Amino acid sequence: MVNYQFLLQLDLNYKNHMIFTIKEIKKGYYEKIGYLVLEDVRRAGTPNDFKDLHPVFLKDWDDDRNLIFVRVYTFDNLTEEKQDALLELAEAFIEFKPSVNHKVNFYVSKEVSKLFEKCWEKDMNMIPVYQWLIDADSENPINLEKLKIDSLNHLSQDE
Questions:
Q1: Within 10 Å of residue 139's Cβ, how many Cβ atoms?
Q2: Which residues, 6+ apart, have CB-to-CB distance to 55 below 8 Å?
Q3: Across the chain, what does the average pLDDT equal?
Q4: Cα angle value 113/119/123 (rounded, 5°)
Q5: What does the pLDDT look like over 69-120, one tens digit per residue?
Q6: SS3 state of residue 94
Q7: CB 11, CB 32: distance < 8 Å
Q8: 70: closest CA among 55, 49, 99?
Q9: Starting at the edge strand that comes first in sequence, how are the strands of the sheet with 6-14 ordered?
Q10: Angle, to 10 degrees, between the axis of helix 110-122 and the axis of helix 127-137?
Q11: What pTM does this model have?
């Protein structure tokens, strides 16, 4: 089994959303490969949230745990082993909470990669990248329009 090493960098912690940059350690340096987005939807999961499960698991649904969506956006396709390693890392954030359920989705997005490069070259303001990540598939989208770059120097951007 190959041992993958990932580094997660907290970028945004705002109103039930957390965004981390995912970096993979390759030959002694860190290569940015994408983003991990956590969204606490503050409701119980339903069978509609887990349509990919076999119907036998959805028949007598009685899971009232709080649902957290985990979305992994990468710039390129990942091997199944790398996805498993990132899944394990993402689950470590939430699995020991008393009553939480989570749904994980992986996406390959050239759009977020291009947006990152554009923001980096322009003024290094990554807020448009974070807005794109939240807007992409959020159940409870938030507007980062009033967020100031200086607020990213704090652990949480909540006011």
A1: 13
A2: none
A3: 87
A4: 160
A5: 999 999 999 999 999 999 998 888 888 888 988 889 999 998 888 888 888 7
A6: helix
A7: no
A8: 49
A9: 6-14, 17-26, 29-44, 66-74, 100-108
A10: 160
A11: 0.89
Closest CA to 74 of 119, 12, 116, 122: 116
Query: Is residue 27 classed as helix, strand or coil in its secondary structure?
Result: coil
Read off the tokens for 68: 């957290």
37: Cα separation from own chain's centroid? 2
Residue with tokens 């089994």: 1
**Torsion sign, CA atoms 64, 72, 84, 22:** negative
3-class secondary structure, 53? coil
Q: Which two tokens stand for residue 103?
A: 């749904």
Q: What token pair was written down for 155?
A: 């652990």
